[in-house]
Amino acid sequence: MPLTNTTAVVPSRAEKPRPRIPLILLTTGALSLAAAPGVWSQELEATTGGNGFYSFSDEVPEVLTTTRLRQPKVRVPGTTTVIEGDLIRDLGITSLVEIFRLVPGMVVAEVGSGTPVTTYHGTVHYEQRRMQVLVDGRTAHRTTLSDMDWQTMPVPLELIERIEVARGPNAAAYGINAFLGTINIITRDPADTAGVETRVVGGSRQYLRTFAAVGAADDDLDWRLDYEKRRSDGFDYQMDHGEKVPFHDGHDINVFNYDSRLKVSPGFDTEFRAGVTDGLNEEDVRRNGDMGLGDHPDIDVRDYYLHTRFNFRTDEHHFFHVQAAYQNFNRRQSWSIFVPEPALSCLRDGLYVFDPANRDTCFPTDADGNLILGTPLTARVDADAEDSRLEFELQDTRLFSDDLKLVSGVGYRKDTYRSATYFNGRGSNYQSRMFGNLEYTPIPWLTLNGGGNWESTTTTNENYFSPRVAANFTLNSNHALRLVYSRAVRTPDGFEQNPDYGFTLHGVQPSVYSEFEGFRIASVNIWEHPDLVTLGQDLEEERIISREISYFGQFPMNEGIFLLEVRGFKDTLRDMISGVIQFDDWTIDNNVAIDQQGFEIEASLEYPDTRFRVTYAYLDQNTWYTGDPNVSEEDKKYNEDLLERLSVRHSGSVAIIRELPMGLLASGAMYWADEFRKSEFQRVDLRLAKRLYHPGFTAELALTMQHYVDEEPDLSSQNNIEHQNQFFLEAGVRF
Amino acid sequence: MVYVAGSGNAALDQHVRQLLQDSLGPGTSLVPLPSNRAALVGDAPVVALGPTAFSNLRQFNRRASVLAMFVERSFIQAYTERHPGQVSAVYYDVPLLRQALIGKAILPQATRISLLATQESIGLYDTLITQLPAYGLEARVFVVETEQQLIPTLARALSYGDFLLAAPDDAIYNPRTIKHILLTAYRRNKIVIGPSQAYVKAGSLASGYSSFPTLIHGVAHYLDTYFKTGAFPAPDYPEAYGVEINRQVARSLNIPVPDRDRIVTEVDEALALRQRALP
């Protein structure tokens, strides 16, 4: 008999059975009386509110993200991919961002010094900021640049309960930034992680991930304390003038989290979370560090967050929560710079240092083509930045009946950014919003959803309303055909709209240049393409209108179940912001329009001991320039291309997980992204795990191999690995 | 004449007496039996409604012929084994194999079942674990050593099984623990089957149950045998069961659940098929 945590012999039946609470009750009504337990039945009803826990609580799964209502898939107004934590772990996924390869239409890549980026339906590769990302309902993207730093996210893989990705504009629920979609990362409830869990994963390219969590759950308080270290050396090498040189693009990040739920009364509980992220994110001098001398401009990461939520339940049909979150992103980055003497003269004379027209003056060369340095200036500069976000939210849910549900709320957010480099000081943006969604099922085969978000932001000093309406035609609770219309906006972030970009010189050497100590070299002093500079122009919001027709179906079979979800879409994106954000170039403007259409498939087949999952996405994107007609055709094309860098025509994944005898679990996955700029990405992952169920603990040992099918790197020619096969070993134990 | 030792719930007692009377016919008189008169029953059989009624009766009269109703097998088994023919029962609980097959009918891809038990209640699952392989299923018992270990053990159990099968084990499943157990299971997208109808109302996905008419039919048959032979047949489960389903849970978990009759039919067929295959 397979027992897990006992070695005791099964006790013989006691001579005198222990008394049992009588399980008898007369349920009045028709004569077909159900024999329900008596005392306990009454107590259960008192405890659960009569209709069970499930009828009323947002502590349990379903699709939460799309409208903020708990909805089964047949009633959700839009296609939503749900990735369960167990799937992530069973496939041996090694980092948070890699998970999104499982989502149809999402692309994952690395830019700069191995900085991971991901998005749905492409657009730009750097500063990807067109998806709303939430962790347990808390906005996760950075304030200054509004992009995501996936390497430092305070989310250990072991603690992911599930990730919901609402594919398509979702500003109706989450406002600005939920432009192309919404990612909601839901971590495991502290009540579910009571006990102790540890895991160590190590492998190729000095990959190391260690995780430990301890917690407890009782009637009053559930809590968990966890720690994760993530370390990797990144890519093996980059190319410099045709030669392989080491790539300084690793990271060493430590994350600490505390998560708790205090149950004050049956109708009131509070959640409290706090976390600290500390570590080093390596940046290669060849990829980053303007005017760099030679030392790598590594980023020192020191982030923290505080998040609390008060959950109130007034009765079975009404609950609301108030939440507040404060997050601070603190990045310290400094490096040495080197300025040739002629360039300093240009700065003194007010010439644009990097303007090709001034090249011979500012960067003269001798007859052999060598730069004439004169007496160069050396100094240290930094790109320190500290952002903080304070947000409040009140959300109210009313369940008038099974067929009529309303969620509504208000929110307020203050984004503060402080950086001498990016803003020459500090600034703030303020957002206020109201949102709501009504779900109405007038007849059993039709569910209607109508929702919207009204928002006011000081970034553009304008108000926006983002609506969504949808009709779900359902059959047997197993099939739904959805028609969805939605609109959304993305407003420019603080840096796009109000930059003051410049580096202040410190530690200037030699002393002959002491006049430059504390001097601020600003973008406006050094433009490379002064005729293209758009700095000072007010940017408008980006707009998207999306039309979706989708189908969700469940097909029970004799020994399993087949699930299919197909999404067809046709989107129009206007006033898209394209161009370059660099120290010596600033050309961003609302100057590109996109029409895109395509379809996506997500299917899974489950049968005894086996799960098979397939995704495929096809994206047909048509991009054209709508900005200043006087710019060259080359520049127009360049701006169009920038918004297609992460747009992939074909992408998908195949995964299979199979239980084998002797506690073995085998899994395999293939991910691909085709016509990815001019390259493609293909990788096959294989994992074999052995699970051990012992008295008092469960352990797992696993070996994962990642095989990169293509020798050529994707997206950037700098992202190279020496060996196409990468190996990872892991060991975990749970008490 | 048949005495009826009541449960203490007057409405229930009255209703059961009425159903029994209808089943036995006017030739048999049913007499309510207060516990303080238990010693006076003589050779007449007593139908005890529930474990409290049974225990009270045994306290005052150990010689009475008692047929227990609304009692679980685990409660009455020791008595019936020591006093065959004199003490018998029509079990109230649902055989665990039947509960497991209900889970299989709902999740046909399931092959592994998680079971939670205490050191004292491991024995509840002995028979089940030996029966399951014949139906393409296997189960593992995860033993909860202390109250504080309930959730950690549950978390480990859920990582093993396709669903959690709950037996009538009040040390594990009770009003204080059930919310935790259900929420933890559903957050992991694992369903819970059993242990009874009341738990289905609380959020368990499904459970088998024995209906009143079936129980009454069984009791009438046992009394008829007693009148003819002077002894009760061996205790047994009723012949038929219904299935209670929490459709809201199923919808929320995106689990397409067949209708109740189909589940009952599938379970009956699986049991019958196995029965026919036995030598």
Descriptors:
heterodimer; A: 735 residues; B: 279 residues; alpha/beta; Rossmann fold; 4-stranded parallel sheet; cell outer membrane (chain A); TonB-dependent receptor (chain A); receptor (chain A)
Largest sheet geometry of chain A: 22 strands, antiparallel, barrel
Number of strands of chain A: 35
Question: Strand order within the widest sheet of chain B?
Answer: 2-1-3-4-5
CATH topology heading of chain A: Maltoporin, Chain A
User: CATH fold name of the largest domain in chain B, please?
Assistant: Rossmann fold
| CATH C-level label of the largest domain in chain B | Alpha Beta
Amount of beta strand of chain A: over 45%
Could you name the CATH class of chain A?
Answer: Mainly Beta
Distance between the termini of chain A: 21 Å
Helix fraction bin of chain B: 40-55%
Which range best describes the helical content of chain A: under 10%, 10-25%, 25-40%, 40-55%, 55-70% or over 70%? under 10%
Q: Spans of chain A of 5+ residues with little confidence (pLDDT < 50)?
A: 1-61
Q: The biggest beta sheet of chain B, please?
A: 5 strands, parallel
How do the helices and strands follow one another from N- to C-terminus of chain B?
EHEEHEHEHEHEHEHEHEHEHH
Determine the mean pLDDT of chain B: 90
Given as residue ranges, the uncertain stretches of chain B (5+ residues, pLDDT < 50) are none
Oligomer: heterodimer
Provide a count of the helices of chain B: 11
Count of spatially separate domains of chain A: 1
Domain TonB-dependent receptor plug (chain A): 73-181
Main location (chain A): membrane
Family (chain A): Belongs to the TonB-dependent receptor family.
Domain TonB-dependent receptor-like beta-barrel (chain A): 283-629
